[in-house]
Amino acid sequence: METKKHALILGVANKFSIAYAICKKLLTQNYSLHITVLNDKVKEKALRLFDEKELSNITIHTCNLNNNEELAELFDHINSKEIILDNLVHSIAFAPQTAFSNPIEAVSKDDFLTTMETSCFSFNTVCNTFKPILKQGSSIITLTYLGSQRAINGYDIMGIAKAALEANTRYLAHSLGKHGIRVNAISAGAIKTAASSGIPGIRDMIKDTQEKCAIKTTLNTADVANAASLFLHTDANAITGQIIYVDNGASTI
Fold first, then answer.
1. pLDDT tens per residue, range 127-151
2. Active site (annotated) includes residue 245
3. Does the annotation mark 155 as catalytic?
4. Is 30 helix (H, G, I), strand (E, B) or coil?
5. What's the domain count of the chain?
C-alpha cells in the first residue's frame, strides 16, 4: 500500500478558493490534509465543503497566521501527532478595502503594512515555523498574480505585495534548499475566487484575460490545482525558486 502523504493547506475560504481546489486534488492522491481557516465561522462552512469520506482524511484548524500564538499552537498540534509534512501550500492574501479607495500614492501606512504582513510576511513565518517538520524533498508553493509584474488597473496595493511575495519565493528557495525543501509560486490567471472578489474591476480583469489569452478556454481553480499537484510532486524535484504561470498564456501576450 502506498504510504499516505501529509500536506498543510493554508487559506481555504470557500468552494471558489484555489486552496479548496488544491485540497480536492490532493485528496485523490492518498493525502492526509491539515487545513487552516481564519475563524470558527469559516470552519463551519469549510466542513460542509467535503463529504464524509474526505473528512476522514482532513483536520481543519482555525488559525490567524498573523498571530504568533495561534501559529505556534498549530505547529504543536501537528507535531504532537508525529506528522512529517510532504507539502505546504500558502494561499493567503488580504488588503483592507480602504487600501483600494485611494490612488496608490495615498494608501495609508497602516493599510500598506497590513497588506504586506498578511500577503507576504506570513509566508516567511509559516516556512520558519514548519521547517522542523518538513521532510527532506518536500515542496512549498504560494499563489501570486501577474499584477506583481505589470501595473494592472485596480490591483494596486496587492500587486506590490505580490511582487514582494515573488522575490520572497526566490530567497526562501535559496535559504531552504540546503534543507532539501523546494519553494515555488504559481501565478494564476484572473479567476473569480474568494480573495479576488475584493479587487475592484475583477470582472473586467477576467474578461480581458479570456479575450487575450493564447488558449481560448475558461480558466478555473481546478486548472491551478492540477499545476500545483505537479509542482508539489517529487517528479518536480529539480524545480525551485520559480514563478510558474497558469493563465492560458495570458502573461505572454
1. 999 999 999 999 999 999 999 999 9
2. no
3. yes
4. coil
5. 1
